[in-house]
């Protein structure tokens, strides 16, 4: 056997070697500093909308808009899309990916990198990235819908707005029909009418998780977002519990 | 004789210490892709799911202990190319430590990483190749290997080793001390090991592992002895990745690893394996009379197994560049981030090509994006924990790292007897009882800057109107979880196996015979710890018990034609219970097994011609094996059915036929050579039936579909391999050797769904897609060259110093594809859309050892 001193030296060298090797593998990753998103110039949605003078506007500077989210795409009725409004106006956000913003979010939209444009008559802010362009300031801020009649809806003022329509009903030919075709994932346009004969399209996507719901037969209140396709205004339902059509129909 | 001792020892050293096959990524968990129309991130998992590394169940290091030149060479030279002897996976070989089978009960595989780094004390093996007789167990068609760890079986020895390498780790330190059986009746062996690498061969891979081992034995009297063995090998490693050829071409690196990214200048790997499964064994060794040995052991294994991965909710991961407007999947090699996807947009193609070539934060994970996004995601969860009005507002993590855990606990009771009836007759037998649980669940590993993660199933959230359907656990609804909390799924697999075997061997002057039989009973069931909302009646609590009774019979004979020529033949037939991992349709969420679950049957036979002269030792073997009625289960996103499915094939048969040749030549007293060659034809031998169930609600979407799998090759491995080596052993105690290896007949692992009538619907034979869908790609053949050299010195009669160096793939061949697989997701109209993924042999690697022992 090795003499005692040799043994001690030997074991010490061993332990030293092990300790040396022990420290060389990185373990804990701490949190990096979050990057700040500058505010820049603050404008209202009405001001934003007015910037569109017939051609697209690409934002490459620091500009921000404060808004509240009135509709998200979680239930599938819209896709990669959201609606936001402030006191002045409303606008449709075209997102780069699904989800990201949720109904009730009070947000600041950082416009750099987004594009203001129109699609078939509907104005939208395109290429919005929820991770880079949206800063959430608060949640559960429900917007009070505007109470309007179908004939009061204005293409300019109310595009993208959250509205409440009272004393409306589905056409009798559509009562009981599913709002959309979930089997083939097809969108269907149903029609609402008021008691004066004014009509409004209710557009529902076959992907929405309430597509199978039948159009109720009664008269009552419906809450939704006003969208536009070419010349037609359309209503998007956010949630079936905002469709309360259980009263007696017109003329009864 | 003595002058051969040192080179022999040194050679053994080189062979055994050089044990490391490269880490090969597997066809593993893949967070799959988004629907063209609806962006739906979905997870794909395969049977090899998350168990850990493919490396760890490749048993080539065990093969190196064999004295059979074919087996020894296959382990040493072919391991890095994922060669498997006779095309068998490791569940066909029983691996034992101290006579206790240690194959994983859930999958049948042998994970040698359980004793990784303990090379010094696991070097003594009793390997039985193929259908030969083992005296500790019945074994599988691949054989049985027992690792001897009984304290009195180690000779007195103290050894310290330092190794330096560039394969899976960079540094290794081992220290072992054995006393052997001492006069006072005690034997004692301890061993410790450390392996580490900041970054190993593949980029982003780190290695952080320890090993500890203790074996003691107390000789009570001439008949009785008791021993205790305890060991473990905790390890944390960063995984390499696998990618499509386009990604390798764009990055200019065949070892491109999509799993890592920079965080504050350091490489951070999202896929980290973290394993520690120690064993404790208490044994009683009894020798009632000379020629009879009875070993009885109670053993217990416990610990943790885990593999991390990214997970995300509503990812808007994109890239900061003015012209870049893609977003969604946070994985850098997601199919839409590849230029080839944008066939009609040359500008985007150019931009993506440029980013792939030049930008690390684009082609690797962007950790900073995740932290930024999480820290901006204010969210309110209402009615947390199902409590009305309990609304919690905070930063909801969109991106997280989760730890997918599989913690195994196993209790084994084993007793084996070996009895020499007379010099010509040995009988052996034993019984083995194994009671095991695999607890499978996942936890939050890192919230990446957020406050909590909201535990709901995002696919159920999308598909169902009722938000309660998205609850993973109705017993604990609406949870927000933090680091360390269990979420998502939580269940335990209970697997009990009882088996007995008996064997009789006759050793006669001209003939050897043996026969052996085994009888076993396996019972398994699932215990759910969460009541899944989509399967409320079928997920929580103890599930249905499934029992199988199986048997095996094997026998063989050796005709000793002369003292130098032998003819050997064996045959076996056995049935095997399905493994827990393969039996359930979707074990994470419900208690449903594959319909018609039955045992598989295996039949095998081989004949060998063996020559042993002082000049030549050789073996030529022909073998034939059939596996029948196996099952194959995968979960992935199905393009045609547009949803996440559980894909189950039953009635899968395979056939393995081939030949093995090993020749060891002692050319001169100092020069030796070997020639080793193996070839086989491993094919699917049936047309399995497929059932496709929707994962979300178990709706059967397709039933009884035929998969035209007949005659397709079993992929992902080399069918043909050969090696020629030359070795010089100097009388001055140094040696040098070179060898050249050849690999051929490497086929891609195919996607069975592409070989169905449904996949070809709408196509005709003359369409290019027809052949593209059906063809099985064969990878090119290749040569590699290795060399090794070693010295040993004797100091003051009792101290030895040994130095050796081996270099593999000397020519640094980096374009050798050793395997690959077709993706499970595919588009019939454009089969190239989801291209196959490949992995390459590592370039030049070395292994250097210095050993000091006395």
Short note summarizing the structure:
With 252 residues, chain A is mainly beta.
Q: Note the main sheet of chain A.
A: 9 strands, mixed
Query: What number of domains of chain B?
Result: 1
What does the radius of gyration of chain B come to? 28 Å
Q: How big a fraction of the residues of chain A is strand?
A: 35-45%
Care to describe what's here?
The complex is a heterodimer of chains A (252) and B (854). Chain A has helices spanning 4-22, 45-50, and strands at 41-43, 57-58, 63-71, 81-85, 90-95, 106-110, 115-119, 122-128, 134-138, 146-148, 162-170, 188-194, 199-204, 219-229, 232-237, 243-247. With 252 residues, chain A is mainly β. Chain A folds into two domains: 41-138, OB fold (Dihydrolipoamide Acetyltransferase, E2P), CATH 2.40.50; 146-247, OB fold (Dihydrolipoamide Acetyltransferase, E2P). In chain A, strands 1, 2, 3, 4, 5, 6, 7, 8 and 9 form a nine-stranded mixed sheet that branches. Chain A has a five-stranded mixed β-barrel with strand order 11-12-13-15-14. The model of chain A has no long low-confidence stretch (mean pLDDT 91). Chain B has 854 residues and is mostly beta strands. Chain B has a single domain, classed as Maltoporin, Chain A, CATH 2.40.170.20. Helix content of chain B is 9%, strand content 47%. Chain B has ten helices and 44 strands. Chain B has a 29-stranded antiparallel sheet that branches. Chain B has a four-stranded mixed sheet with strand order 4-3-6-5, with no helix packed on it. The longest helix of chain B is centred in the N-terminal third of the chain and has 16 residues, at 2-17. Chain B is globular and about 80 Å long. The relative contact order of chain B is 0.12. Classes of the chains: A mainly beta (252), B mainly beta (854).
């Amino acid at each position: 056997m090795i003499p005692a001193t040799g043994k001690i030296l030997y074991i010490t060298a061993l332990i030293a070697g092990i300790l040396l090797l022990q420290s060389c593998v990185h373990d804990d990753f701490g949190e990096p500093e979050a990057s700040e998103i500058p505010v820049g110039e603050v404008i209202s949605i009405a001001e934003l909308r007015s910037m569109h003078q017939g051609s697209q506007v690409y934002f490459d500077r620091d500009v921000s808009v404060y808004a509240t989210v009135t509709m998200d795409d979680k239930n599938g009725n819209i896709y990669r899309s959201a609606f936001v409004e402030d006191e002045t106006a409303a606008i449709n956000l075209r997102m780069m990916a699904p989800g990201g913003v949720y109904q009730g979010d009070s947000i600041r939209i950082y416009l750099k990198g987004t594009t203001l444009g129109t699609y078939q008559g509907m104005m939208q802010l395109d290429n919005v990235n929820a991770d880079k362009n949206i800063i959430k300031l608060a949640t559960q801020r429900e917007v009070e819908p505007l109470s309007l009649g179908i004939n009061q809806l204005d293409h300019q003022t109310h595009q993208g707005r959250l509205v409440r329509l009272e004393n409306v009903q589905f056409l009798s030919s559509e009562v009981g029909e599913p709002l959309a075709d979930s089997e083939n994932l097809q969108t269907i346009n149903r029609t609402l009418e008021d008691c004066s004969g004014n009509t409004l399209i209710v557009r529902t996507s076959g992907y929405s998780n309430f597509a199978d719901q039948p159009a109720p037969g009664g008269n009552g209140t419906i809450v939704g977002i006003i969208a536009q396709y070419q010349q037609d205004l359309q209503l998007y339902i956010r949630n079936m519990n905002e469709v309360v059509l259980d009263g007696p129909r017109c003329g009864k | 004789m003595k002058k051969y001792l040192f080179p022999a020892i040194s050679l053994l050293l080189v062979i055994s210490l050089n044990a490391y096959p490269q880490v090969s990524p597997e066809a593993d968990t893949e967070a799959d892709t988004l629907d063209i129309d609806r962006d739906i991130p979905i997870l794909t998992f395969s049977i090899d799911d998350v168990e850990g590394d493919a490396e760890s169940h490749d048993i080539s290091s065990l093969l190196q202990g064999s004295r059979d030149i074919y087996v020894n060479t296959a382990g040493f030279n072919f391991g890095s190319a994922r060669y498997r002897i006779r095309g068998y996976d490791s569940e066909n070989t029983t691996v034992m430590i101290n006579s206790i089978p240690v194959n994983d009960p859930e999958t049948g595989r042998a994970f040698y990483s359980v004793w990784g780094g303990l090379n010094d004390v696991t070097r003594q093996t009793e390997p039985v190749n193929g259908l030969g007789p083992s005296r500790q167990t019945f074994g599988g068609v691949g054989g049985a290997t027992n690792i001897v760890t009984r304290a009195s079986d180690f000779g007195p020895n103290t050894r310290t080793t330092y190794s330096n390498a560039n394969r899976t780790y960079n540094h290794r330190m081992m220290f072992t001390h054995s006393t052997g059986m001492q006069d006072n009746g005690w034997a004692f062996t301890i061993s410790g090991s450390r392996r580490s690498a900041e970054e190993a061969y593949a980029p982003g891979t780190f290695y952080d592992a320890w090993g500890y081992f203790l074996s003691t034995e107390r000789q009570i009297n001439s008949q009785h002895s008791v021993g205790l063995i305890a060991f473990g090998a905790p390890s944390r490693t960063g995984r390499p990745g696998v990618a499509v050829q386009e990604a390798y071409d764009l990055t200019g690196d065949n070892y491109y690893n999509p799993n890592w990214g920079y965080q504050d200048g350091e490489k951070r790997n999202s896929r980290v394996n973290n394993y520690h499964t120690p064993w404790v064994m208490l044994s009683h060794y009894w020798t009632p009379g000379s020629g009879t040995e009875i070993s009885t052991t109670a053993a217990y294994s416990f610990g943790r197994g885990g593999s991390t991965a990214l997970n995300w909710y509503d990812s808007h991961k994109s890239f900061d560049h003015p012209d870049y407007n893609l977003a969604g999947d946070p994985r850098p090699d997601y199919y839409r981030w590849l230029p080839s996807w944008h066939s009609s947009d040359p500008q985007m193609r150019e931009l993506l090509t440029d980013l792939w070539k030049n930008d690390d934060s684009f082609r690797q994970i962007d950790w900073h994006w995740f932290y930024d996004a999480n820290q901006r995601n204010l969210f309110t969860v209402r009615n947390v924990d199902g409590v009305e009005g309990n609304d919690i507002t905070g930063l909801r993590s969109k991106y997280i790292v989760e730890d997918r855990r599989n913690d195994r606990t196993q209790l084994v009771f084993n007793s084996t007897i070996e009895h020499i009836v007379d010099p010509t007759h040995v009988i052996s037998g034993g019984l083995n009882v194994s009671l095991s649980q695999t607890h499978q669940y996942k936890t939050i590993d890192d919230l990446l800057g957020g406050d909590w993660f909201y535990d709901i199933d995002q696919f159920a959230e999308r598909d169902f109107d009722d938000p309660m359907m998205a609850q993973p656990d109705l017993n604990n609804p609406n949870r927000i979880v933090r680091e360390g909390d269990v979420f998502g799924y939580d269940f335990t697999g209970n697997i009990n196996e009882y088996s007995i075997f008996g064997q009789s061997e006759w050793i006669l002057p001209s003939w050897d015979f043996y026969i052996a039989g085994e009888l076993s009973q396996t019972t398994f069931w699932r215990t759910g710890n969460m009541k899944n909302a989509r399967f409320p009646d079928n997920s929580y609590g103890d599930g249905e018990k499934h029992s199988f009774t199986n048997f095996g019979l094997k026998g063989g004979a050796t005709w000793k034609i002369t003292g130098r020529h032998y003819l050997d033949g064996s045959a076996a037939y056995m049935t095997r219970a399905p493994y827990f991992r393969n039996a359930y349709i979707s074990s994470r969420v419900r208690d449903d097994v594959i319909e018609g679950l039955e045992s598989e049957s295996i039949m095998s036979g081989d004949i060998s011609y063996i020559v042993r002269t002082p000049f030549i030792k050789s073996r030529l073997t022909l073998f034939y094996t059939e596996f029948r009625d196996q099952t194959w289960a995968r979960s992935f996103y199905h393009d045609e059915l547009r949803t996440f499915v559980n894909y189950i094939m039953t009635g899968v048969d395979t056939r393995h036929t081939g030949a093995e040749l090993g020749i060891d030549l002692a050319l001169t007293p100092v020069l030796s050579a070997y020639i080793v060659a193996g070839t086989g034809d491993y094919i699917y031998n049936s047309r399995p039936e497929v059932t496709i169930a929707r994962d979300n609600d178990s709706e059967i979407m397709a039933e009884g579909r035929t998969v035209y799998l007949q005659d397709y090759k079993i992929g992902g491995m080399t069918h043909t391999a050969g090696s020629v080596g030359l070795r010089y052993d100097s009388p001055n105690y140094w040696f040098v050797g070179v060898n050249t290896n050849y690999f051929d007949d490497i086929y891609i692992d195919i996607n069975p769904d592409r070989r169905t009538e449904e996949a070809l619907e709408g196509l005709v034979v003359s369409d290019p897609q027809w052949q593209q869908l059906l063809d099985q790609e064969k990878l090119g053949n290749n040569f590699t060259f290795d060399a090794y050299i070693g010295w040993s010195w004797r100091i003051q009669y009792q101290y030895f110093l040994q130095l050796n160096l081996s270099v593999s793939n000397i020519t640094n061949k980096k374009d050798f594809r050793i395997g690959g697989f077709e993706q499970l997701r595919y588009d019939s109209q454009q089969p190239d859309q989801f291209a196959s993924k490949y992995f390459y042999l590592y370039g030049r690697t070395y292994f250097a050892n210095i050993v000091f022992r006395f």
